[in-house]
Design goal:
By secondary structure, the protein is α/β, with parallel strands linked by helices. It is built from 20 helices and 13 strands.
Length: 477
């Protein structure tokens, strides 16, 4: 009953805010402002000012970007659900996109009128998004008759797995979620403070062991991908209790539940394994290599999560025209490459230019089958996509993708999952965790400087590649 009255109150607040906004009108200045709300450290910020010039060139209109960041999906969503924020472009994760669609909080992006407009100008870059990504977005739950691809456009994607120190952990050990329960790693384990990214793979692991115990699976057999996909919807009381029992065993070994400091703990060898996202793993691997610490990353064989972040236009957006142009601008292959350079994450843009950019026989020994990802609009693989020398952490091969599934919003069950997550973490203030928290705050200043230096190096690396490519092309002519 309390929840019902809370929802009614929220609806009244939203209605009053909307009425107030309508009565006051929208200022001329606001109509030439684009408010972008994105994850922290998730874009090449030089592109923001460049977009302003690009937009002026193609529309004749001026625009100024107001750029803000968030660290948690739910914090971002709360601002929009309450009708208290008029962001024009936001970058939520897949399960939040589901929730926003279900609650009618989004506007369509690629409308027929806008598509015709950018086609006429020759600047339609939406088709540069991989068909594989669009297929995954189509799996998101949406109200009947609505296609998630009409309301969201992919930005970055990756997997959830285990980052490990090769000095203390073997690749074979890291290939199973069982490693997270290894007692010899006590106070050397860090875990992302992201309950869904932890809940889903641990549920897959727990159900795998359960199936082996009851004879449904053989000792070394794994769940099929369809079963893994079904588990991504499972937030039943039974499954929440099952995951909680596993996490309470794990927490006795955990040094810290981290939002961002786990990477530093790994590079400093204060942590030996970290349940984290692939993009963060690459950042840590590169930083660790500079201090002679060898880290690697795996997606355990039992199965895991393949996650996606995408651009959306919220219901309360004001400058929707500039928002659509901004999303189009982010889909330009050269901009996608720059964003990958700046963030370490993987863009959903996958054309020949991006394929050439990620390929390097000098840096990688084994070729990867990426024909599922680098595909033309007609469904045919891009030439050479079945044998690419690329970073296997950022670009998982087909065999890894075949055991990963997309997370989904748990709707009204979300509170139950959050309550479980709070119970698991609430009484786990181990010495290791306290040390980790203290270290986190003590290194924030140094880390901030290091990140800026790292981003500068990435930009320089990108410029060198561009210069080398230009020289090669000139010699070819």
């Amino acid at each position: 009953m309390k929840l019902r009255y809370t929802n009614i109150l929220r609806t009244l607040v939203v209605a009053l805010v909307a009425l107030f906004s309508a009565s006051c009108g929208v200022s001329e200045e606001r109509m030439h402002t684009l408010k972008v709300y994105n994850w922290g450290d998730y874009i090449d910020e030089d592109l923001l000012s460049e977009f302003e010039s690009w937009y002026k060139e193609h529309t004749g209109e001026s625009v100024q970007i107001i750029y803000q960041t968030f660290d948690i999906n739910e914090v971002m969503l709360a601002k929009i659900e309450n009708g208290m924020a008029d962001f024009d472009v936001v970058c939520p994760s897949e399960y939040i996109i589901e929730r926003m669609m279900r609650n009618e909080l989004l506007q369509p992006i690629l409308t027929p009128e806008f598509e015709q407009e950018i086609n006429d100008k020759g600047i339609n870059y939406f088709n540069c998004v991989s068909p594989y990504i669009k297929e995954q977005f189509s799996l998101l739950e949406a109200p009947e008759g609505q296609d998630p691809n009409d309301y969201s456009v992919g930005y970055m994607w990756g997997t959830t797995g285990i980052l490990y120190n090769t000095k203390y952990v073997t690749e074979e050990e890291a290939m199973s979620w069982n490693l997270m329960f290894d007692k010899r790693l006590q106070d050397k384990i860090f875990v992302k403070d992201a309950f869904r990214d932890v809940y889903s793979p641990i549920l897959v692991y727990a159900k795998t062991l359960e199936a082996r115990q009851n004879g449904t699976l053989g000792e070394d057999e794994m769940l099929d991908i369809e079963t893994i996909r079904e588990l991504m919807y499972d937030s039943s009381d039974e499954s929440i209790a099952l995951v909680e029992s596993y996490l309470k065993r794990m927490k006795e070994l955990v040094a810290g539940w981290e939002a961002d400091f786990g990477k530093e703990m790994m590079t400093q060898e204060k942590g030996w394994i970290n349940l984290m996202w692939s993009g963060d793993a690459v950042w840590a691997i590169e930083e660790a290599a500079e201090v002679d610490v060898e880290l690697d990353y795996t997606v355990p064989v039992e199965g895991s999560v393949v996650w996606f972040d995408g651009w959306v236009i919220p219901k309360y957006a004001v400058n929707t025209r500039a928002a659509r142009y901004f999303i189009d601008f982010m889909c330009m292959p050269e901009n996608a490459i720059r964003n990958m350079d700046a963030t370490g994450y993987v863009s959903v843009v996958t054309n020949e230019e991006v394929l050439e950019y990620i390929s390097s026989e000098e840096d990688y020994d084994e070729a990867i089958d990426l024909s599922y990802l680098f595909v033309h609009a007609d469904g045919t693989p891009i030439e050479g996509a079945d044998s690419v020398f690329a970073d296997p952490v950022l670009y998982p091969c087909r065999s890894v993708i075949d055991r990963c599934a997309v997370m989904h919003d748990s709707g009204d069950r979300t509170d139950k999952m959050l309550e479980m997550w709070s119970r698991v973490k609430g009484d786990n203030l181990s010495t290791g965790m306290l040390v980790g928290i203290i270290l986190f705050f003590s290194v924030m200043f140094v880390w901030g400087i290091a990140r800026k230096v790292n981003n500068y190096r990435k930009r320089q690396k990108h410029l060198k590649r561009r210069h080398h490519r230009a020289q090669t092309e000139r010699r070819g002519k």
